[in-house]
Records
---
Amino acid sequence: MDDPRKRSLAGLAFQITYVWVIKAVFHTNWLRAFIAWLLAMVIEVIILFLLSAVGLVALHSLV
């Protein structure tokens, strides 16, 4: 079976890598990279809701 600790470590490694890439690409410190990561998550959620709304409107127009 899959060990839940491995999944949590993989998720943590992914998040650290995500912030590290932001830090490396924009040549900034860790705090600013973390803030940019938080902003990116907020923007992703907003886009998710906008695309979901467009999809629901498109489905409604087909009915």
---
Amino acid sequence: MPRALTYTEMMNGGRQQMDEDEHAREQELQQRVDALEKNVDQLEQCLVKPLP
């Protein structure tokens, strides 16, 4: 969850910390996308050849 920077953070490169946080969120989202794509692939395989 984004938060407001303190005055000290703003004076000490808070932008860098926000960039790092944003990068971490992007990585997490990409992992979730990858997992969902894997699930879709597995479901498609089940539709192509149903389990016995």
---
Amino acid sequence: MYEMVKFILVGAVAVMGLFMAVCPQKAVKAEEKENEKSLASMRKKGIMLAVLAVVCGVVFAISQFMI
């Protein structure tokens, strides 16, 4: 059961990264919604977060099932 907690948390982080990448207007502060630089920065951060979460999930899966 405790092994599944890692995968659930990694999945939640990946979903959060996808949300940041797809809807950056809703992920930034209210005063920064008009600024294109902050929206582009949030989109890049969301993509990086989603990719890193997938990589962590793969590493966890390999370490879980190879041992």
